[in-house]
Each structure stands twice: as C-alpha cells, then as structure tokens.
Amino acid sequence: MSRAALVAALLLSGLLGSAQAGTYRVQAGDTLWGIARAHSISVTALLDLNRGRSATIRPGDTLRVPDRNTPTVRAAAFTPPQDTDRVFQQGQAVYYGGRFTPQTNLTAAHLTLPFGTWVRVTHTRTGRSVDVMINDRGPFGIQSRVIDLSTEAARALGIISEGVAPVTLSILSRP
After folding, report:
1. Domain ends where: 18, 42, 77?
2. Residue-number span of the structural domain to which 123 is assigned
3. Which residue from 5, 82, 149, 150 could staple onto 154, CB 3.0 to 4.6 Å apart?
C-alpha cells in the first residue's frame, strides 16, 4: 500500500470512528494507563477514542480501544480531549533526571498534584508538548518553577540544552 493510500485509509478510519475501534470491558484494578499500554496507545489517545466520557473508569464500563487488526495511529495524530486545552498552571520547567517507575520514563515532580496524575507540559515558546506522570515531589526553592521533568520528558520538550523553559501545564487525568 502506498503512503498516500495509507494516509487516506487512516483519515477515513478516523472519520468513521468505530471502524478502527474495538471494545474493552473495564475490570477491577484496571487503570487508564494500563488499558492504554495494553492497546499500544497513550492515555490521551484512549481518552480521545472515548470522547464525552469522564477520565474516571469503573469495573464494568465499556471503552473503545484500537482494533488489533488495523494499523495503529500514534498518539500525536489524535486531537487531545477538549478539557486538556485548559491551562492548570504556568511557570518554568526544569529537568532533574526523574525517579524511576516501571510504567513510563516520562515522569515528573510536582509540589501538589497527586501521584499518578497525567499532565501535558507545553513549551510556551516552541509549542512542543509531552505527557508526563507525576511520581515525585518538587521543585523546591524557586517559586516560578512549577515542574521537574525526567530526562526523557525534557528531551521530548527540547529543553535539555536550555535547562529551564517556560511551560504551561494541563491535567489529562487524575488517579
């Protein structure tokens, strides 16, 4: 299949919605992150497939998930849910290396957000963004600094050489 044909097929399946999606029944102990990982998409993409639903899931809920028999569109190709456009906080991001978690390398530290919260961090000058999971506390000392990013997250934002960058934070999901 040519690249143009593949792009057309992906756009058509995105317009049809359920043509690319299967269903998954939420089990006790499931998390959005775990379901997204099992279906090789991001939490953002999972929420996008389930527009109109809250980020809270309960056992027995049915979620739309990508069909394993069709090519998967990477999370960057999906439009974020409408509520992620609201800015939660503005300030500076720094990177500190991060605290290891077996779930993801894209982690961050925040002073008040609950552990397990997923946040979209957007570099205000470049427009680049990355989704990170809060798993540590910080930054401490300088009030303008609102988030400490893992090395991988800082690399995705393009701030490794800067060290400090102006950002906005938008909450994607809470635990």
Report:
1. 77
2. 86-173
3. 149
* 53 in the same domain as 112: no
Please tell me the distance from the alpha carbon of residue 7 to that of residue 11, in angstroms, as a whole number.
6
3-class SS of residue 42 = coil
- How many C-beta neighbours within 10 Å does residue 113 have? 20
Count of structural domains, the chain: 2
Taking the model in full, what pTM does it have?
A: 0.53
Mean pLDDT of the chain: 78
pLDDT at residue number 148:
94
60 and 23 belong to one structural domain: yes
SS3 labels along 81-150: CHHHHCCCEEEEEEEEECCCCCCCCCEEECCCCCCCCEEEEEECCCCCEEEEEEEECCCCCCCCEEEEEE
Name the domain boundary from 39, 60, 77: 77
Q: Point out which residues pair with 89 in neighbouring strands.
A: 169
